[in-house]
Amino acid sequence: MADAADNPPFLPDAPIQGLPSGIDEGSVFRLLFIAYPDSLLLVDQSGSIMLANPSAAALLGYAVSELVGLNVDVLVPDSIRPRHASYREAYGRAPRPRPMGTHMELVAKRKDGSEVMVEIALSPLQSHGLPFVVAAIRDIGAYPRVKQALQRARYSEHLAQLGRLAVDTRDLQVVLQHVPEIITTALQVEVAMVWLLDGNRLEFRVASGVGLVAGEEIGARIANRPDTPPGFVFSQGRPVVVPDYRREDRFSVPKAYLDSGLVSALAVPLTDLGRVIGMLSVRSKESKRFGDEEVRFLESLSSLLATSLQRVQTEEALNHAQRLESVGQLTGGIAHDFNNLLTVIQGNLQVLEELPALAQNGYVQQLLGAANRASRRGAELTGKLLAFSRRQVLQPVAIDSHALLHSLADMLRRTLDQRIRIEIDTAPGCPPVMADPGQLESALLNIAINARDAMPEGGTLRFCTELCRALPMALRSQRNDPRGDASARFVAISIADSGTGMSEEVKEHAFEPFFTTKEVGRGTGLGLSTVYGFVHQSRGAVAIDSKIGHGTTVTLYLPQQEEVRPPAAMEEPAGEAIPSGLRVMLVEDDVEVRKVANTFLTTLGCKVFTAATAEQALSALDAGAGPFDLLLSDIALGAGMRGTRLASEIQQRFPQMAVLLMSGFSSELLDADREVPQSWELLPKPYTRSELAQAMAKVLAGGA
User: Fold this and answer.
1) CA–CA distance, 174 with 166 (Å, rounded to integer)
2) Which of 248, 355, 462, 492 could form a Cys-Cys staple with 468, CB 3.0–4.6 A?
3) How do residues 130-165 score in pLDDT, each as one tens digit?
């Protein structure tokens, strides 16, 4: 094989002109083969490797001498080796040139068993009379754009993981313990820590960490001074990147960092309402390890963690009020930040999925799919929190009780004690009920949480529905029906538990406001009273059946839908009829959300003008910008003018301009603003491009 390497058999037919004296063609082509940046293999008809260049050895983890003589099948993962052998046999019968980029989802197996995504070009030499094929192999994971896309997808997946954890658990310690693990896994670094600032703001405390060095154990305290690592970040109030500890002179670098081989670092402050309350820090043994992508990732994690911290502080301020009321107070702020984050994550994932360079790449699509599923679950959980925390005037619609109970049970299985078994038994063909969907779900959750408290050792929670032609006689006095319709039909939704049950005296007072049997600090006594008020206002009735030691059943009797029409949840959405060249003014204070919305609008064929605040938008209009067909604005635009006020002022000047508002909060922000016309629509965050298009089409159609 050494002779073959010294005398390459694939020299050109015509001599190379102008070579310096003393340099022959064989030397030139031997050097080209050795120096070529792509991996090159010369393979014979049997699949044996005749020559390999150093790039191939580096990519595949072999020495050049080890590759020579191997069969190329060794470089193919075991799972696809039979398919590869069949392909190689067919190719040998009809060899043809195949350039890079024409065959996706190729994987090479390294010597150590690991796998690498590659592109392969094939150049047969049979036309030159040589029984060989030159295979050029390229590691596509090394492409800058692909590496960046994979990196962002991985970061998005880990952000969604923390978001899901923050929603699923109410134990702050669980969240704190997982944050460093998520960071080290996502960034592939050695050290990650969460620092919390004490109430006196004089010291930082190590709350959790991975890879901690001496002197920074869990619970250790560091002075909040500008000459300490956390104190310096506090003094800056913004992310701090340390390219190399050995050249750092802004603060004192502890000797333990250098002794542990740590070289670079990144730290991001934790803030609550603009006030620093802690810090996230990561360290690496690699110099200049952290760039803009890592800063954005850590800032997003910091925002989620700060939201969780704020939630715990709010719960303590509410003096351990009943869980449902506590969540109702917290979800608005959580939803805004989290839904903005999900909008950015989902929007960028959708853009990545549609990139031509990645559309056919199975591995990348697998990563993007996982990140999409995680972010959708985060959006689903946030939506459910908002659904049962609304406080608004009842807006009855037709509700499919079967779908509602299954959706509710899915959430309860993730949030209630795992020892509680949840069962559903819905009557076939049960008609829709007329009720406010948010209030109905809130009522069912109130009852389910009471049932959980009655089963401290676990048990069974059972949801049932059945048709009811008339209310039980004992409940008819409850019903609030000014029309006196004796022919009304009902659906009975019952929630039964196998818990401790109620005495007759407790049952008698169960619906009274502020009545509770729970210990001080665990309940407000408003749960069942709000259920009673909701059902009564919905022209229905509610009953309790319970005995000590035999559990409790609460039954809601709600009116059936009077007219035969599809439930509101089943109505078809508006089509995406967006006129080409539609002129849109986009107003969004979050820069990353603004980029996503701008990308969506551009791909929909719109001409977009962007502004970060309402004031900027009005100034642009005063300066002659426009005209515009549509205003797309967030409601909460920071400290300045709200989106509703901006929309009102613009429509006074430009009545023909359609209005579409966005918000990460619940719809009560729009409902509570009395100056908002009924024709305005609210697009909840996070949203997809299709959902944005449907909402735009709806308001444009309404304006027309």
Assistant:
1) 9
2) 492
3) 889 999 998 876 666 666 666 677 777 877 877 777
